[in-house]
């Protein structure tokens, strides 16, 4: 967890037919996306968003933090889908992450600063994290590290694209469209392969 990957995954704006549609042509209610045949419900997505908004509202910088994340639903959904892609790619490669590895990574990130400092930094990241979402993000980053080590940072897009295509991902059009080749949700870019030594902070004055 001491390298910055050279890979930059950008989201493409796709013109696609309506997804997640029932026979009547109506979008299935309560579904944000379907990944590998499993639903990501809008309630599960909204719970993640609400946790972040609650944490933001407790901050002295609440107004700035909220203003900097107007597309939080799409960003969070993109990250939720990408985690499932990482899990599938890791499974295909025979890789996994243990609870101990997550615990060790958290202790390393907290360092002398402590949990409160880490939580504040996570809230200011480009993909903001509520305190309860930090461990899942660490798992995300550890999976990405292991895949990068296995395939090389310049070729990691290949197993991720393969996993993305195998999962047959469909997204409710209200959130955009999934691009399996870019492993991203459009039309809003979902930044996800970022520095893994600590959560990325918003530029000053952003």
UniProtKB/TrEMBL annotation:
It comes from the Bacteria. The keyword Acetylation does not apply. Residues 1-22 form the signal peptide. Pfam families: SurA_N_2. Keywords: Signal. InterPro entries: Trigger_fact/SurA_dom_sf (IPR027304). Transmembrane segments: none annotated. This is SurA N-terminal domain-containing protein.
């Amino acid at each position: 967890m001491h390298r910055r990957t050279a890979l930059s995954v950008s989201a493409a704006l796709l013109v696609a037919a309506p997804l997640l549609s029932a026979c009547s042509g109506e979008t299935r209610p309560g579904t944000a996306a379907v990944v590998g045949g499993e639903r990501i419900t809008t309630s599960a997505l909204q719970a993640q968003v609400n946790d972040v908004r609650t944490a933001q509202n407790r901050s002295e910088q609440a107004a700035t933090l909220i203003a900097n994340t107007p597309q939080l639903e799409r960003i969070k959904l993109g990250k939720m889908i990408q985690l499932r892609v990482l899990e599938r790619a890791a499974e295909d490669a025979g890789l996994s992450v243990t609870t101990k590895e997550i615990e060790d990574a958290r202790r390393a990130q907290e360092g002398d600063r402590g949990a409160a400092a880490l939580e504040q930094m996570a809230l200011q990241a480009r993909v903001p994290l509520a305190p309860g979402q930090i461990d899942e993000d660490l798992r995300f980053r550890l999976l990405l590290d292991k895949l990068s080590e296995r395939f090389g940072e310049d070729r990691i897009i290949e197993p991720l694209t393969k996993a993305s295509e195998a999962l047959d991902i469909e997204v409710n059009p209200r959130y955009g469209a999934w691009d399996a080749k870019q492993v991203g949700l459009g039309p809003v870019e979902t930044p996800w392969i970022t520095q893994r030594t600590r959560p990325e902070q918003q530029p000053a004055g952003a």
